[in-house]
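Continuing from the previous page...

OK, I double-checked the sequence for Heavy-metal-associated domain-containing protein against my notes and this is the correct one:
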Amino acid sequence: MTNPANLLAQRGLIALLPRGFVARGALAAGLLAAGAVAFVGPDRLLAQIEGERGIAPVVASNDIEIGNIEVDATGKNAQEAKLNGWREAYKKAWEAAHGPALDVGTIESIVAGVVVDREEIGPHRYRAKLVIAFDRARAGQYGAGNGGVAVRSAPMLVIPVLTSGGVGQVFEVRSPWQKVWAEYRTGASAIDYVRANGGGADSLLINAGQPGRRSRVWWRGLLDQFGASDVLIPAARLERQWPGGPVKGFFTARYGPDNIALGSFELNASDDSAVPAMLAQALARMDQIYTDALTRGLLRPDPTLSVDHPTMEPGLASLIAAGRAAEAAAAAQAAAEHAADEAAAAEAVAAQPVAPQPKPGGAALTIQFASPDARAVDQALAAVRGVAGVDNAATTSIAIGGTSVMRAQFNGNADALAAALRKAGWQVSVAGAALRIRR
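Thanks. Re-ran it with the corrected sequence; updated structure tokens here:
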């Protein structure tokens, strides 16, 4: 029996794992492969990647490519007519690249290549549609490409999502939207487009559901597979009015793992045969939206996708921030409750009677008395307060059924207070500054 891991590796499914993950051991790859086969079966899994799905993109270069240059030139013979036509194309392309005024000889020295889309050669006439490629380094010396061509973006993975008939697709089938992106000559754009060919495991890795993912770990693994720094999602939705009738297209330029919309527009096609031209026009407008965003500084790679210097993804960062805010609120509430408890304790201490302090010329005397009940406490306080010269008297310790203590401020000594209390019918014993009284 064929090893499931080897079977998937032969079909390119090993690309399902991030590059670093695969490098850490074949065991993990084998487990994932075996699990995938066990879950859906090898026949069904392979059916999702086999067949004619992808469209290989045209070769991308760093040259400044200017397309759709049409010329109609004449000459003494066919060769001279073609030479005149190409020179005319050089000048038109140089103007389209926003280059300064130069003679045709200098412009010709900057040309890196010519791609013929269509040409008609007669004895004395030459008509053609050409793509002129300028060497970016040499053209940059003259300031060509100031319209956004000279400065290029970071590598951006393109996921062209097409929704037609209510079904979203990328590489599941060969779609006209994928086709125009594959045939687009990216050298003329300020955006460094990274285009997958859609074959092999690409249809599994990149599908219509991928833009809905938010996991930075998944995105980092995917972008690392294609050597990209961020992702662009040109989304197209086609609505047919009736079979064979007009087709309305809705287009949205999105970017980033959070699927942020940069701009949208609508186009119309008279019938299905005009759809490819409409999609090509939509691609040009998409490229302009992305170029404008790059010029305004909006098309910067998401820092949370950086492998070298990764930052925390927004969802997790917001959860941590919310947790820290909750902890701070709980700490503030606990501090407030503690302060309230301390204030209540201070109020309780302030409400307790304060023993009188001695005044100049007087004495603070301690008086013990029997207190079998509350009435005895009141009687003892009344007797002491009734003595002439007592400024203040208050209990400091009450023991019902035992001996209570009071403290009195008296303008005299302990013997004078004892004599006054004896006259009031109390039995008094004196020991220094302390008195003991009873009935």
